[in-house]
Design a protein that fits this description.
Blueprint: H1 2-78, H2 86-102, E1 106-110, E2 116-118, H3 129-134, E3 141-145, E4 148-155, H4 158-179, E5 187-191, E6 197-201, H5 211-224, E7 228-231, E8 237-242, H6 246-310, H7 317-339, E9 347-350, H8 351-363, E10 370-375, E11 382-385, H9 387-404, E12 409-417, E13 421-428, H10 456-467, E14 471-478, E15 482-490
Parallel strand pairs: 10-12
Antiparallel strand pairs: 1-2, 1-4, 3-4, 5-6, 5-8, 7-8, 9-11, 12-13, 13-15, 14-15
Helix pairs in contact: 1-2, 1-4, 1-6, 6-7, 8-9, 9-10
Length: 491
């Protein structure tokens, strides 16, 4: 029973560690998956950054093209000062007007007094106020026609304005995608030079609402992941600081949590196991007390009966022999109980003689209808033995057999051996034991008797297995036919 409990405890601990390893493995996989998402997100930042920068370069080129067209336009207008090239200039002016009109470039030409000459719908008005501010986003071109100073103002074409709005939207989307990312990565974007805050996302503002807190938070993030350097559309250099997602932070503590739970379960299991063991020991001590009373009851009752019988009678030797037998029985019982609870001394003793002594004692006190059959080898079989305790085992099994046979049957004892072991088979023709109870009959407190205490076979198992390092088990049993108990001792 004790060995089984330790095996169950070992299995429980092993299962707990396997479960803990599996949970840790799952947590690690989820953590690695989260880290992969962060890497993909960081890579996407770089790709979007390239897209934004490429778009910005494209718009810079468009702006330059706009400027060149206006420069070409003013050059052609100024070339009208050369009267020999009127035909070519007219053609060139028509071509440039076509380019300007096709790109929807909006322009205004004024004289020296800022009076608008072109376009016709604004001709005669003075360029000032909001209109001047609107057309002063780009440097104007100054030129002369036939000696008169003229000034050309222009602003972005409608196509360029639409594309500029798209660029602004793309820039805004770029920062929003970084800070409010789909993988919920806590992000802080700061200027590379002065570490001033540009944007943040998925992080509580109170964690960096002061310069000292911001720097501390940036240092913590940098210790986890290397910041990503990006160039914003305005050519501003920035750093993207990020840390693990909240899920990753939570998964870090999952193995420790389950280790704590497993530890608590082990502590609770230990105390339950200890409580069960204490209860079992209590049952054993109660049973021992009852067994002591039972063991002492027979010889004491016999001595009382002899005392009453011998009163006023002439003393004879046969009476003295019977009294000595009972006294010897009391001594045997005393020796038995003195050995329980301590390590008994084992001596080389003959198993055949010890077994025969127990059977001889039981024959004289068993019901008359019980037949004893012995099959012993002729030569002695010696092994380390405590005769007092071993006889107790034989007696307990024999008494159980007599009860199982209801006082009528055959009890057989067969002793055999091989090179290493001695086998004692104790057979009865009683009511048998079901297969499901073959191991349970050795449990402390288990009994099928109405007045039993369930201690005899439990003591027998302890004496054989713990004291003699042997084995005892139900070798064979058929309900209604009988049972065979086998004891195995090492030579």
């Amino acid at each position: 029973m004790k060995k089984t409990k330790w095996i169950l405890l070992a299995i429980t601990v092993a299962l707990a560690f396997v479960a803990l390893w599996q949970i840790n493995h799952i947590a690690t996989q989820i953590r690695q998956s989260e880290q992969a998402k962060v890497r993909i997100w960081a890579n996407a930042i770089g790709q979007k950054m390239e897209l934004v920068n490429h778009t910005e370069r494209f718009f810079e080129q468009v702006t330059l093209d706009e400027h060149r067209k206006m420069q070409l336009y003013t050059n052609i207008l100024q070339s009208f000062n050369n009267s020999d090239a009127n035909l070519d200039l007219s053609f060139s002016l028509a071509y440039v007007n076509y380019i300007v009109d096709s790109s929807h470039t909006q322009l205004i030409i004024t004289d020296k007094d800022s009076i608008i000459t072109t376009p016709r719908e604004l001709s005669g008005k003075k360029l000032n106020g909001d209109l001047l501010k609107e057309f002063s986003q780009n440097p104007p071109f100054h030129y002369r026609i036939w000696g008169m100073p003229m000034t050309l103002y222009y602003k972005e074409s409608l196509i360029y304005s639409d594309m500029r709005e798209m660029l602004t939207s793309l820039n805004t989307s770029f920062l929003e995608d970084i800070t409010n990312n789909s993988v919920f990565v806590p992000v802080i974007i700061v200027d590379e030079k002065d570490k001033s805050l540009i944007s943040s996302g998925n992080i509580q503002e109170k964690e960096f609402d002061t310069p000292m807190k911001l720097q501390a938070k940036l240092d913590d993030m940098a210790s986890e992941n290397t910041p990503i350097q990006i160039t914003l559309p305005n050519n501003q250099k920035a750093l993207v600081y990020y840390e693990q997602t909240p899920l990753q932070h939570s998964l870090r503590w999952v193995p420790l949590l389950y280790m704590f739970i497993a530890f608590v379960i082990m502590i609770v299991s230990y105390y339950l196991f200890r409580t069960a063991k204490t209860m079992e020991q209590n049952r054993i001590w109660i049973g021992m007390a009852k067994e002591t009373a039972h063991q002492l009851g027979t010889p004491i009752s016999s001595l009382i009966a002899w005392t009453e019988y011998l009163q006023n009678k002439t003393f004879e030797e046969k009476y003295a022999a019977e009294v000595r037998k009972d006294i010897s029985r009391l001594e045997t019982i005393t020796h038995r109980f003195s050995k329980i609870g301590s390590v008994p001394e084992l001596v080389d003793a003959d198993v055949v003689t010890t077994t025969n002594n127990a059977i001889t004692y039981l024959k004289g006190r068993a019901p008359r209808k019980i037949q004893f059959v012995t099959n012993f080898p002729d030569e002695p079989l010696s092994c380390p033995l405590n005769p007092y305790l071993f006889e107790w085992v034989i007696e307990n099994i024999c008494k159980n057999a007599i009860d199982a046979m209801n006082g009528n049957g055959t009890f057989s004892v067969i002793i055999s051996s091989d090179s290493k072991h001695i086998y004692i088979d104790l057979c009865d023709t009683g009511k048998g034991i079901p297969n499901s109870l073959h191991k349970k009959v050795f449990d402390s407190g288990f009994t099928t008797k109405q007045r039993g205490w369930g201690l005899g076979l439990s003591l027998a198992k302890r004496i054989i297995e713990e004291y003699h390092r042997g084995k005892i088990f139900v070798k064979y049993s058929v309900p209604g036919q009988g049972t065979v108990f086998r004891i195995v001792l090492n030579k």
